[in-house]
Each structure stands twice: as C-alpha cells, then as structure tokens.
Ferric uptake regulation protein (Vibrio gelatinilyticus), 147 residues
Amino acid sequence: MNKQLTQQIEDICVARGVRLTAQRRRVYEIICENRRACSAYELLEQLKQSEPQAKPPTVYRALDFLLEQGFIHRVESTNSFISCCTFGEHKHFSHLLICESCGSVVELQDDNLIALLNRNVEKHGFEFSSHIIESHGICKACSSSAT
C-alpha cells in the first residue's frame, strides 16, 4: 500500500474531524490493493487474514464511512467497491470501465464529458447528488489474451 496515499487519507480525515480507525484504514488498503472491484464479502475474507474476528458489520461500517468520505465508489451493477481516483471529493462525475472478463475497473475523469453532463443537468434544472456512468466490456489485456 502506498504510504503517501494512506497519509493523504489520514490528513483529510483529521481536517474533517472524522476518525480513520485501523479497521477503516485496512479495508481501504485492501480495496486499493485489488486490481478489480471487490464485494463486501470478498473484503471480509481478506480482512480476516489480519483480523480473524472480523464480522460483516465491521466491513459494512467501514464501507459506509469510506463512501461517505468520498474515498471509494460503489460499482452498482456488481455491488462491489473500488478506490476513487479523486478521493476526498464528495461530488464528482465518474465514468467506470468495467471488464466483464477479469473484473478490473478503471475510473476516468473526462472534462469534456463532465461539461456535457453539467450542461444537460442545468438545462433540465436538475440537481445531482452523485453521478457515475458504468460501461461494461472487455479490457485491453483480456481482449489481447483471447487472440
């Protein structure tokens, strides 16, 4: 796990007056260590390697905290979680590329797409609370290995 990234997360929590407990930190680290999105139960199994007493509520509380702070995203279509590339920003647009073969997820930030979405939102007088676009397909690595 990148110590600089962990320090940034800790600094954000201190600035916001919220606690990054050891369990919350470990769940975040596990999410960051995985190349693909992980379900809560996959996270629990990995957490049990360092904390054998961990139970599902432990993971769900950590996930709720990490989502609330903007450190992770929920991949709605697969009910799984990934780290956020612009962690700490509560409201932002994300475009997720989800590989249906290996399960990897890439988060994109495209200023042109964001501008277009903002124009459409404003045009309809709509206020968004969050916006995540999920695109499913096959990643470059999986499509290359299939040939």
